[in-house]
Amino acid sequence: MPQGPALPEDVTGEELDAEARVELRTLPRDLATKVARHLVMAGRLVDDDPQTAFRHAQAARRLASRVGIVREAAGLAAYHTGEWSEALAELRAARRLRNTEEAYLPILADCERGLGRPERALDLAKSPAARDLDQADRIELKIVESGARRDLGQLDAAVVTLQIPELRDKRLQPWSARLFYAYADALLEAGREEEAGEWFARAAAADRDGETDAAERYAELAGLEIIDVEDDEDQALETDVTVEESPAEAGRAAAGPEEAGTSAQTDVESTTAVEEPDVSDRPEAQDTVGEPSAPGSPGTDEATGTGPADADAPEATGDSGAGTPEASVSEVQGVTDASDAATAEATEVAGEPGPVDASGGEPAERTAPPADEPNTENGVSPSGG
Fold first, then answer.
1. Is residue 28 a part of any domain in this protein?
2. N or C, where is the chain less crowded by C-beta within 10 Å?
3. Domain count, the chain
4. Domain that holds residue 67
5. What is the per-residue pLDDT across 168-210, written as a single tens digit (0 to 9) for each?
């Protein structure tokens, strides 16, 4: 005996609703658990994988063929796979076992249509059992009846069949999308395209779960093209998330391997030149260049303390092409010599021994002239004139 499809370990059978589990109490406990697990899998897969769901339902039927819920599951799974004859047989058996004459009436009528017997479908729609249906099943049976009349070529009658009060209900109901769609389809087959387009649009608005292709049908009639916004947004997001290359990296990518290597070497040399310390920052240079000149020394500005040598000294920059370290040392040496000369001259002016006293004593102490008075003896002025 075939064992049926494999059962996932996480399915225990407890997922089955309480009413269905009550019907399985007539079975031994282990057998009831196994049947329940197959029924759970059939219910899970009936929409996405009807073939596998049908196999689970058949496995349950082989284990418990005299249980109404099992025959119902087998009939519904067969209906979703298009097995009209088997669906009819299983659902009729379920009606007998459950003693419910009106159950599954819309599905039974649709199976008759599927088998090419629209007259039998109309007989079921007009049967006394149809009057006992609830509102949802009654509307489903009306949809099947309209289809059967279209199968018979009664196009206007198919339209009239669906002109029921629920068609004008301003509030959306669980059946609204299917009812609007069936009415639009009947109008289109009757040659009333403009009205059909209007009702396809209503069906699309009511079909929030995407159970029908009403939007596509409306677009086809209106000459419109439907664009998948979600795919466009995903593509735009992928385009935005890119890594921007620096100009140097972009140039290397465009250049060949040899040119890229040369460019990298140039970058390293440039970095080395930029990071070379300025000679003026060294302690020796600071001690020499930064030594304050004596008042009245030539080339010294009284306000800032800097002289022409400081002003003419090249400013240290990070440009690898201007001011090499050798040139900086030479310029600093020149500044040092000029400073030394100025210091020596100032010392000579300030420390020159005065005239010897007539009495033969120590030389008289000499006072340096004020900074703002010209030293007429040595011809040196604070401005260096």
1. yes
2. N
3. 1
4. 1-100
5. 998 999 999 999 999 999 999 999 999 999 999 999 999 998 8
